[in-house]
Amino acid sequence: xxxxxxxxxxxxxxxxxxxxxxxxxxxxxxxxxxxxxxxxxxxxxxxxxxxxxxxxxxxxxxxxxxxxxxxxxxxxxxxxxxxxxxxxxxxxxxxxxxxxxxxxxxxxxxxxxxxxxxxxxxxx
Length: 124
Prior knowledge:
This protein has helices at residues 11-21, 37-47, 63-73, 90-99, 111-122; strands at 3-7, 30-34, 51-55, 80-85, 103-106. The protein is an alpha/beta fold. Helix 4 links the parallel strand 4 (80-85) and strand 5 (103-106).
């Protein structure tokens, strides 16, 4: 069963992402959520989700550090990471690329685009 991890410290954003992606549950996709980077890293290590929607600015561990740990320190290349952030500056995008992010999306995001991206990544 494919897994998607949603990581955001804002409850409203987590709910919006869950609602956007809930149709995928009918196709056998499991949705997992958490509100901080530290727990996200534990879930990624234990569950190996195929896709992670990851906020940048979070408590305990930011999204850049989570991505860097997953991609560069743990070498988990099979985990597709999409950074979702309000930080749209070129400097921030470059930092995302430097830590190995697969896609950098700025908030507010288009729910249809997000769902389509998830379908593509999971091969649905």
